């Protein structure tokens, strides 16, 4: 654990909250501008989040403001620290990367706040940054150690070969990946994801995370990827990844996964390609505890884009505890109600709340509007935070956990 922050540092950080509230986005935009002058640092970030709308700078501005507001009581941020550490491990973030962020952040504060960024203020923010950085570095080191020590585990990037490609729908393909070295793989927790490093002609170096869509095993992973309209990596995978293609892969990571020790009823709720971690969970439940009360609820636009429909039905047929409900927002002409889908419209929190036992644990993944509606709706109906679990790959300013957060002055 890093040394506690001094009382003087805490007071100075709290005093900067009004300035951060007003100028936080300008500071983080400047910080990224400075960091990305170094190509080795720029490649660590998902550049699709550095868009004209400033999604990633907004997310970081919110995180910095939250850190400043809670600097005297960081317990509420423990979950965020774990999420960040897991994301960093999937992207192979190392201790030597942290000084680059510190330098850019402090320079950005000075550039934006000018004379208001006194030497004392900058020193306080330097101390506060390194306090958090050391927490993350320590946690990440523990995760790396555990992964390296696990059977089939590794650190850094490992070559995997595409073994099989399956077209799951008009927009989603599954890729089964096996180690190029012929070895085994570490068993993931159902719901976790893999990190990938790409270096593509015309695109350059990029990093991405994709959820694992199969149950844990010793031999292979499967990812199921949606072709996104502007997705440089997803389009490349759909157009060029074939059996034999080599991909560079980091070991499984993520804090969103099925609790193997729990016997509580579970609802697996997904929208679109958000079904990928849910399939991993469902396969696990069917194999290990088929009697466990499990409610699979999935929303898709229509049958043309609905992936893994028959696979899920086959799993349901094998497990007496599993029941399913499928929603199509805009059924296609050939979609048959009661056969291809169960309900027309959107998955709602009210439907979920009415169809599960009171002690159900919800696992949710899907597009941002879907996540906000389901998580926010369930919270509004009184479902406590500890029974709402979700995976989210977007910038943190749109994270569904915001429904539980209360702004403090």
Automatic annotation (TrEMBL):
GO MF terms, alphabetically ordered: FAD binding; heme binding; metal ion binding; nitric oxide dioxygenase NAD(P)H activity; oxygen binding; oxygen carrier activity
Keywords: Detoxification, FAD, Flavoprotein, Heme, Iron, Metal-binding, NAD, NADP, Oxidoreductase, Oxygen transport, Transport
Domain Globin: start-end pairs: 4-141
Enzyme Commission (EC) number: 1.14.12.17
Gene Ontology biological-process entries: cellular response to nitrosative stress; nitric oxide catabolic process; response to toxic substance
Reported cofactor(s): FAD; heme b
Family of this protein: Belongs to the globin family. Two-domain flavohemoproteins subfamily.
Function: Is involved in NO detoxification in an aerobic process, termed nitric oxide dioxygenase (NOD) reaction that utilizes O(2) and NAD(P)H to convert NO to nitrate, which protects the bacterium from various noxious nitrogen compounds. Therefore, plays a central role in the inducible response to nitrosative stress.
Stated name of the protein: Flavohemoprotein
Species in which this protein is naturally found: Acidiphilium cryptum (strain JF-5)
């Amino acid at each position: 654990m890093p040394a506690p922050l001094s009382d003087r540092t805490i007071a100075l950080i709290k005093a900067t909250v009004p300035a951060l509230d007003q100028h936080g986005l300008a500071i983080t935009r400047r910080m990224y501008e400075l960091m990305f002058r170094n190509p080795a640092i720029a490649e660590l970030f998902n550049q699709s989040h550095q868009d004209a709308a400033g999604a990633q700078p907004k997310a970081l501005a919110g995180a910095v403001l939250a850190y400043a507001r809670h600097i005297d009581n960081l317990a509420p941020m423990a979950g965020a620290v774990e999420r960040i550490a897991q994301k960093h491990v999937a992207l192979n973030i190392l201790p030597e990367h942290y000084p680059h962020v510190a330098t850019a952040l402090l320079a950005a504060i000075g550039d934006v706040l000018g004379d208001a960024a006194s030497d004392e203020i900058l020193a306080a923010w330097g101390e506060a940054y390194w306090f958090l950085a050391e927490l993350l570095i320590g946690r990440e080191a523990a995760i790396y150690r555990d992964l390296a020590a696990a059977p089939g585990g590794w650190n850094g990037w490992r070559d995997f070969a595409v073994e099989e490609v399956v077209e799951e729908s008009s927009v989603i393909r599954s890729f089964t990946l096996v180690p190029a070295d012929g070895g085994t793989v570490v068993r993931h927790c159902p719901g976790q994801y893999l990190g990938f490093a790409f270096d593509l002609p015309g695109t350059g170096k990029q990093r991405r995370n994709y959820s694992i869509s199969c149950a844990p095993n010793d031999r292979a992973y499967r990812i199921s990827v949606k072709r996104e309209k502007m997705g440089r990596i997803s389009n490349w995978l759909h157009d060029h990844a074939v059996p034999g293609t080599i991909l560079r892969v980091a070991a499984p990571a993520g804090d969103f996964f099925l609790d193997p020790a729990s016997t509580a009823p579970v609802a697996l709720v997904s929208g679109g390609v958000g079904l990928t971690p849910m399939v991993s969970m469902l396969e696990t439940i069917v194999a290990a505890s088929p009697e466990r009360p499990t409610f699979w609820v999935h929303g898709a636009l229509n049958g043309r884009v609905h992936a893994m429909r028959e696979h899920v039905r086959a799993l349901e047929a094998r497990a007496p505890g599993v029941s399913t409900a499928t929603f199509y927002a805009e059924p296609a002409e050939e979609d048959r109600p009661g056969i291809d889908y169960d309900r027309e419209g959107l998955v709602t929190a009210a439907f979920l709340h009415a169809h599960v036992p009171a002690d159900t644990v919800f696992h949710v993944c899907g597009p941002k509007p879907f996540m906000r509606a389901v998580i926010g709706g369930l919270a509004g109906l009184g479902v406590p935070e500890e029974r709402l679990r979700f995976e989210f790959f977007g910038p943190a300013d749109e994270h569904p956990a915001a429904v539980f957060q209360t702004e403090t002055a």
